[in-house]
Amino acid sequence: MKVTRKDLEKSQVELLVELSVADFAPYIEKGAQKLSEEVKIEGFRPGKVPYDILKQKVGEMSILEQAAHLAIHKTIDATIDENIKDQEVAGQPRVEVSKLAPGNPMEYKIIVAVLPEIKIGKYKDLGIKQEEAKVDEKDIQKALNDVAESRAKESITADPIKSGDKAIIDLDMFLDKVPAEDGQARDLTVLIGKDYFVPGFDKSLIGAKKGEEINFSLPFPADYHQKTFAGKMVDFKVKIKEVYNREIPELSDDLARGFGLKKLEDLKKFFADNMAHRLEHQNEQKSEIAMLDKILEKSNFGDLPESLIQNEAELIMAELEQEIVKQGGKFEDYLQSIGKERQQLMMELLPQAVKRVKSALMLREVAKAEDLKISVEEIDKKIEELKIQYKADANVAKMIKEPGYRGYLGNILANQKVLKKLREWNIG
Q1: Major place of localization (predicted)?
Q2: CATH placement of domain 2-114
Q3: Using CB atoms within 10 A of its CB, is residue 134 exposed (0-12), middle (13-18) or buried (19+)?
Q4: What is the mean pLDDT of the chain?
Q5: pLDDT tens digit string along 290-330?
Q6: Confidence of residue 344 (pLDDT cuts 50, 70, 90)
Q7: What pLDDT is attached to residue 45?
Q8: What is the pTM of this model?
Q9: For residues 183 and 225, what is the distance between their CA atoms, to the nearest angstrom?
Q10: Confidence of residue 246 (pLDDT cuts 50, 70, 90)
């Protein structure tokens, strides 16, 4: 077997593999045997069909294609290991049969992405300062007011709409007197005084009564998320279907008792603690991003394989889609709301994907330089923790048992260990 290596751009390597007629002959024999077991030919038992009869039945190229598949499967791993010793392979190889004909050598190409050369910059004593988690009293007050509003008592009224009421409406929107795409809503709930949807919308309903139909026009902000309406004057036709008075309870100990607490101060402390915890987490993320950016800024990377970047962009897209679905939305609706096609969004995610790939490669280099490794015991311990945490989730239990999961989990734990060390060295 002859192998010719060719270094390509973008950190790719091409291996041209040639099996001589003699090298390929055993695979032809095995390929014919496999096909003879699968193809039913009258007068012959499975696996006992003579080669010439089989060739007439399925065609010689079918036998050669089966043989090529077997040859590639048998030789590809060793070929990569023996010919790319000085670099680490990234992702799955691409394989293409380049020559396959009766009585000739068989030839196939392997194209693999390899990790580029990396020179990491300074990664210790960077002096990153983490912001203190200070909770604003206004945010606590807003949370208390929101909770009180959620416990409001509502009663139907025939009176005109006033600030603080709730209205159920049917809505139609028009652009240049033409019904707007996605500009209709039925049984829409509007809280008067909240000034959401578009500035001035809820105030335009004040004074209207149940059963009335009103018309008005409002300008949409230039940065409105639905590009259809952004920066345009939109005409509204609104039918008032129901009006509710809302009696909001006072901020008192009674309100706190509705949440299993004794006093209003306890409820206030509950919100303050939760906000502080959330702020602390946000500040940790900010300081970590600042630290990684500073290290990446002083690091040098060879050409990144396009396959790595593409895979990372697809992963980011999948994470975004999963988050939207988790919140009860549809990804197609999200794309429509931002006025973008899936492929367009994918292209916009590429810079973020490049940064994530570089960060992952940088963490690997720090792990090597500092000899930070994950032991078998650490992986075992984490798996046991996950089993307990997700014992009622059959999908997680199945995932944990999959062959590649230990390696995947090991990579996550290794990154966490490196990040923890980097935080110790750099963030104060």
Answers
A1: cytoplasm
A2: 3.30.70.1050
A3: exposed
A4: 93
A5: 999 999 999 999 999 988 899 999 999 999 999 999 999 99
A6: very high
A7: 84
A8: 0.71
A9: 14
A10: very high
Neighbours of 213 (CB within 10 A): 12
Distance CA 268, CA 275 (A): 11
| Class of the domain covering 260-426 | mainly alpha
152-247 CATH pick, 3.40.47.10, 3.40.250.10, 3.40.50.970, 3.10.50.40: 3.10.50.40
